Amino acid sequence: MLYFSGGSSPRTPRALRTPRRNGARRIAALLTVPLLAVSAAGCGSDDGKGAPPAVSGSWGKKPKIEKGEGDPPSELKTKVLKSGNGQKVRKGDAVSAQYVGQLWNGKEFDSSWKRKMPATFQIGTGKVIKGWDEALVGKKTGSRIEIVAPPDKGYGKKGQPPTIPGNSTLVFVVDLEKIAPSKIDGKPVDKPQDSQLPKVSTKVEKGKAPSMQMPKGKETAPDKLISETIVQGDGKKKVDADSTILTHFTAKTWKGGKQLDDTWAQNGAPQDIPVAQIPGWKEGLKGAKAGSRVVISVPQSEFPKQQQKQFKDGVVFSVDVLDVK
């Protein structure tokens, strides 16, 4: 994604992502969102090896996890530390959660609490490591879950260098906050779309980005930032300069309509993104309500100096605002 503060992207935390087969450099890779996603429910049988490490602390606050004792278990272990009374997580749900992950030896490698923002990830569809997919389906929001994932439910022989060595057993504590909306629910705006912008579909399809038709004969963004709401939501809270939004979005270059980013295609789950982190979003999304789709044309001048050459023709975004935080 188009992040400019360095570090990992604001998407699914790196420690939970399934390995990618191609290293295509996406525009999103320049941004910073946590990358957190995993899969289905189960506890794993007792194989006689190390029990899940002890955990202390209250729900909603970063827990303290002791280091593992003895040999780590060879099967997935799941323990409900606190039972919630919210919705059950179903296969394919996007879940908003806080979590911390550490190695069996107690070394922490990831924490949403440190980023001061919950992560959103899709469960049960292979978008995250098997240990999450198999531990969280069927659990209720409001619960705190401890997961001990052996290598074959995590990152196997290769690991995720430099933070996760090969053949690592991973220990997570996850606070399930809520089931996130997966698509917008606004209504198409009843007027012609701005002719200066690409024509973007107002059709809302779960799991699929809207089509975007670039204007003929135009290969450079207009000189000034332009934004237009094409699907109007009715959420109570409006986007401002300090907002973080839960979003699905797609991004293309003006010249040739080259695909730069597409959250639907990348990992299927919406992302929590501070609007100030992506060029043009703070201004282009100002006043937008949850449930809306906004088209934003961002000229070269809006990008940081070091990236203006990379995006010299400008970028156009179609942004679905699922929630405003």
TrEMBL record:
Residues 92-180, 242-299 form the PPIase FKBP-type domain. Its EC number is 5.2.1.8. It holds the Pfam family FKBP_C. One of its GO terms (molecular function) is isomerase activity. It catalyses: [protein]-peptidylproline (omega=180) = [protein]-peptidylproline (omega=0). Keywords: Isomerase, Rotamase. The keyword Isomerase applies. Signal peptide: none annotated. Residues 63-78, 183-193, 216-225 have a biased composition (Basic and acidic residues). Residues 1-22, 42-89, 147-167, 183-225 are annotated as: Disordered. The keyword Isomerase applies. Belongs to the FKBP-type PPIase family. This is peptidylprolyl isomerase. It comes from Streptomyces spirodelae.
